[in-house]
Fold these 4 entries.
Entry 1:
Amino acid sequence: PLILLAYVGLFLFQEKMVIKNLDQLTTLPSYRFFQAVSGYARQLCAESIYIKTSVYLGGTHKQKTLKKNEKNLADHFVLVSKLHPKFRDTYFLCEGFLPSISKESAARANDIIGTGQSTYPDFWLFDIFAAFNCFYYLDDHIKAASILNEAVQKPGAPSWLGRLASVLAAQGGELYTGLNWLKLMRSGEKDDSARARYDKDIRLFEQAISVQQGADRYANHYGKPPEKLEELVPEFLSEIPDPGKNFVYDWVPPTLKLKRPKTMGVR
């Protein structure tokens, strides 16, 4: 009863302080301080900080002050994740607010989510969070693809994660990596319709690789890559293969990437 009373009192106190200082998320002591003074009450300390953070984020003022308080906000999530790494709500709340503030905050969010990945190694949803941040906020398609490729091998993970990993690898210019992942996923797929989709994607990647190889032959012959893919025809390729309606070639010499049209996004 005393612990419950202290918990409720702390919640009400935190709420009062946040209402009083609507535009500020106060700085907290370091993790080592909490580690030293809290002892066996680390979980209680973590949840009290989580409540404080939630009350702040639930205020109508947050959109105006998130950028101002982004460092303190990240520090709050770091402390909670270290003091109570098994508290899953921390990672969900972190993903909902921190990555969108800035590129630096997105990187810190992935560090925090990394604690959740280590604590719950088979919980593939945290991998989705990290991969999305790499793709959308950090513009690192290769890292996002690598995370998803590991996630798809976890118990209960949907098979489409492997296909998405291949798409992200292609957008990062890693055509060979994407092709190998597709072939690996196809080899373990039992559904005929899914195997047919993999076959279609494999042919697309092989076509793109043939274009990349043509560009490599051009560069070896002329000492520099072509400025446009059309320069490969007819000396190095008989024609430029059609990538279809779901992809476009993105030629950034000397690397060819496969990308989804902007109107489609990544699916």
Note: The CA atoms of residues 95 and 116 lie 12 Å apart.
Entry 2:
Amino acid sequence: PEEGVRLMFDRSGVDLSEEEWKETLDDITTGQTDLWLDEYPLILGILDALVHAHSRGIYHRDVKPGNILLELDFSRAEKGLDPFVPKLCDFGASKIIGTGKNKKSIAPTRHTLVNIRTEPYRPNYDESTEKGKKEIRHQDTWDLLAWAVLTVEFLVNQHLDTLEEVRSHLEEKIAVEVDREIVDLLRKALSDDPEERPQDTKKFRSRIVKLTEKRKKRLKWKD
């Protein structure tokens, strides 16, 4: 919304005349509205950060709103692109597993804060149970689960307290407006069974991009 964009500019300390403000607003807003595509630049930016981290053999394991910073990039606005660039920060709970032959198995350890979690961005489990042990083995799915939670919250413009609420909002509010294939990917990322969640972040991103481009083409969306 215009008010939100104006607030971000005001907080940046940039002093724009009304004429400059109007020109800038025209550059970064097209008047188009779509539940998925309006939030897509932010959604994709966070996903890109996860793909990069995972490619380096790092699982963040604490993806949440407080660990997402927004950089205001005026050069992007001048090119007609979304000026807000998300930055993933605070890798204090991350785990380095390496890549290729150097990749290590994911074992439970208190030294990497595995037991510290923020709901609903991490699965809730008892590590003494079979489900808990399965979650520990599939920590490679936690970042995408958190990304899916953030995505649902962005789309409904509301903070949600539990994974059950997130899944409910996905079915009741998002599934009726967003392509079934995209919703199916979100469902998989939010699955209660870690073995059903996507494990390859790069392939997941490619699928999201492909389906989004398909939606843009159908809606004749102008970037």
Note: The chain has a mean pLDDT of 84.
Entry 3:
Amino acid sequence: MTISYPQAAVVLRIVWEDFGTRSPELSQVYTFEVLPKRVSVSLNNYKEADTFDVELDYRVFPLDPRFIRSCQITIHIENMERLVDERGKAVRIQPRAPSTGDKHNTVLMGFVDTHNIDLNDNTKTVLMKGRDFTSLYTDIPWTGKAVPLSQSVDKVIEGIIAQLKTTGDIKVENRTGLPTLPILSKIAPDLGELAGTRGAKRKESTWDVIQEIAAKAALIAYIELDKLVLTIPQVLTD
């Protein structure tokens, strides 16, 4: 029988509410690494954002979330394989970012949407709920500038991402196994011009447009941590 010893850690990057004071101290990003009481991560289908619930002990995180303007979160989970090391010292998870390569223990990167604080005689907890970086696209209506379709599918999507200030750091990764992807105008001449007026008429999100572009090339687009991945649909049988 195999026994696992999973542990979780969260890294919070917080900008505090300045209440209109424009304080330079409150406009900075403050980073906190916290061991949570409970973590739940739901990995949903590629068209939806992954979601999470994180419960923190107020004694470990003695900060009122109502004073948070925005909070980016990175959740790390790893099977530590044991409780103590050879010297009898407690084993603790060390957050390792995706930039460290295959040995990273990051399972989700996203933003906190809602938070709640519960202080009473029995419990002192802070509950945070949110979604991964897919929410950056699902929450933004498509109002972008016209995108030239005479480029490969990945380049068209990169052009859409570049228009959004909040998602400029997200890179597009080609995992199709193909050295180059097809030119969009050749495979989807009926797509028309991807101008902002189109979104106003159809009430589309930016994620809807990205999904349609990928589907025209028979591809799947999804967010994996801090990357937008393009891949070929997989099947289990012939």
Note: The mean pLDDT is 86.
Entry 4:
Amino acid sequence: SGDVEKAFSDFWESEKSESLKQIAKDENIPFQNIQELVGEYMYTQKLPRGQDIADMLPEQPKLLERKGIIERILSGIQNFVDVFEW
């Protein structure tokens, strides 16, 4: 039973990491930045502000695109935490 728990734990950590990497890749955010956003959300239980997300983007989006990008990232963070942390 110890082997099964270890195997599942390894699998879960791998899936968690891959999911976070996919969010970072899809939204063109450095992996470290998305980790910080998720960590802050888990600690404060408050979603990051839109400006905090925009500041982490490598290129500032056009004004019309900004809201959609921020909403996608917030949704990705919420989904990630719902699946892997709670």
Note: The mean pLDDT is 90.
